[in-house]
Each structure stands twice: as C-alpha cells, then as structure tokens.
Write a structure and sequence with these properties.
The protein has helices spanning 8-11, 15-24, 41-49, 66-69, 80-89, 94-98, 101-115, 123-128, 130-140, 147-158, 168-194, 200-206, 216-247, 249-257, 262-272, 304-307, 342-359, and strands spanning 27-30, 35-38, 54-55, 120-122, 208-209, 212-213, 278-283, 287-289, 292-294, 299-303, 360-365, 386-391. By secondary structure, the protein is an alpha+beta fold. The strands form four sheets. Strands 1-2-10-7-3 form a five-stranded mixed sheet. Strands 4-12-11 form a three-stranded antiparallel sheet. Mean pLDDT is 89; it is low at 1-8.
Length: 393
Amino acid sequence: MTRATQGQDARWNDPAWFKEMRDNEPVWFDPDLRMWHAFRYQDVARVLSEYELFGSDFSQLFPDRADLVAGNILAMDPPRHHRLRRLVSQAFTPRAIAELEGRIVELTDELLDQAGERDHLELVGDLSYPLPVIVIAELLGVPAEDRLVFKSWADDLLDQENVDPTDKAAIDESAQRLEKFRDYLRGHLAERRRHPRRDLLTDLDAAEIDGEKLDDQEIVGFATVLLLAGHITTTVLLGNSIRCLDEHPEAQDALRANPEGLPAAIEEVLRYRSPFTRSARFTTTEVTLGDQVIAAKSLVNVWIDAANRDERQFDRPDEFVPDRSPNPHLGFGRGIHFCIGAPLARLEAKLALRILLTRFSALRVDPTRPLEPYANPGINGVKELHLIVEPAG
C-alpha cells in the first residue's frame, strides 16, 4: 500500500510521496476529495493538451457557479476560448513584450533604489510583488499605486487551504473575495467608457467576437485573472529563482559572470520549483488515463510538480541543473491553456535577476527568518523572502 491515505497537509508538497505515486499509483482516485489525480509527466501532459477529452469550463459541472468563470480564459473551452485568446493575445505578442523591456528595467532599478543601500532585502515586498503588479496595472490601465490594495485581496485568496472544487462553502467564500477585485475593475471599466484611453481595458470594451461585444462580466473576469495570475507568476518565479541560487551558490556565481545563462536557468527553476503545482480538468466523456477508466464528468487533478520531477522524462530530476537542455517542463502548462503571460514573466524574471546579480555580489536567504509558504497548495512560493545581500563594488 502507498501513502495515498496519509493526511492531506503532509502529501501535497512531498516529493517522496509524488515519486511513490508515480511508481505505484500514477493515476489515483482520491476518496476524500472525490477526484482523480495524475502524477506522471506523460499523463499530465496529455490531460493538459487534449482539451476535447479534458475540459476546463467547470460551469458545465456546476452551472450555478457560471458567474465565477465568466471571462476567465483559464476556465473556458473552445470555441469561446480560442476567440477570446486571439483577441487578447495582441497585448502579449513578442513585439509587444519586447517593447516593455525598458520599462521593466526602469521599474526594477527604481524599486531597488527605494530599498536603499543596505545589507538586507525583503524580496517580495521590495521587488518581486510590486514589479509585475505595476507592469500589469499599466497594461490594463488601472492605478499602479493601488497595488497594496491588490495585494491584500490577492493574499486573501492565496491563503485559502481548500483544494476541493466541489466544496460549495469554499467556492462561495472565494466568490466573495473575488468580488472585491471585480467591483474595483467595474468602476474603472465604467470610467473607461466615459473617457477611453490607450490601454487593455479600453481595448476589451471596444472589441467584438463574432460581431458581439464582450459583456461586463467577461471583461471584468478576464481583467481579474490577468491582475491575479499575471503578478503571482512572476512574484513566485523570482522568489523561487533566488532560493535555487541560494541553494546552489556556484550557479549564482556562474550567472553573475555570464548573464547569458539566465534564460536556461529560469526554465530550470520553472521545472525544479514550479510556481503552480497543479491544475484541474474534468472528463467530457469516459476516458482511459494510464490504466484507469475514468467516467465522464469526473474531476481530474494533474500535479505539475510531480510531472516535472518524473525520471521517465528528465535525467537527474531531483537536481537543479541550470543549463539543462532540452527542458520540456510543464511549469507554464501545455496546450491551449499554456500561460498567455509566459513571455512577460520570463522577461521580467530575466531582467530583474540580471540587475540583482549586478547590484549585489552575494544574495543569500536569511537563515534566521523562517519561510512561510502560501496556504493554498496550488502555489509553490513563500509570502516573504528575507535576503542578506552584499552590494557590489
């Protein structure tokens, strides 16, 4: 018997448990959560890729919660998904992202200047949270100075421990917390209709799909996802990168000497310490996954963390190899729901890390300050990251 029956808190972030499940029960039905779990790379990649068999629009299972997924491109299936993604992807083209490079460098320098010349840095508060929030806020057209309010709302959501998508009380609580974001964005959308600007909110209000304009719920829903997912990805990725470089000082020294290695190292962070540990789907029909037959309309949870450590796919999977190549990790997902903001997150991480490594001759995690992870087991990051730093030169 495996440890599948051990307590929830002990297993979701346990690499040893993931390995045991990959070896013995790679597709497993969880009687407590009443859902299936997949752990091997091949199975996880398949679920993420085959949207015809594994859907994302959970309003089909829970129609009374349709308002929660309106405009949420992550919880949408084709053809509506394809149309909305094409509509918003213009803001995330390689050219559009490249044009943000100067602003990202400027913001990183400004934020680190504000932190002052000292031997201590709290990475989340000083840099890794405000940087992506300001960039996303400016793209949307909402005041970046409201970022502390965004953070309080986001932290409320990220502090939820429940992982059961059938728990009505937990869903209702999430809805109430999301409503703060939505009310805020509705106010800005109304203002944009009175005074259009050159920003994403104005573009979404003016856009049409098949001759139909997006309704308020769809616009606000998409903007909410962009503000939430758009910042947490980079916030966690930057923190996880520094943690990896703290654990591997030789890699930190090598990247300081040769920043050209940063893109490959960031990809390895995305594999080794993925920002998002899991993703949920439901079966649209009866399907066989691994050697298990799964009924239609069943919930399937795929563990990205487990897949990215699968020795069937990666050599030395439990080692951090900063120049790993090839590196087909699933840190940003796969298929039609591949993270639309991945190019932006990669650019922000590369530029911020390059500046940190240039400004500081040493970056170490403060061993006297305990790391506090997010309560939500779907997020692989810490709320604060206190660093001991040595300014260069």
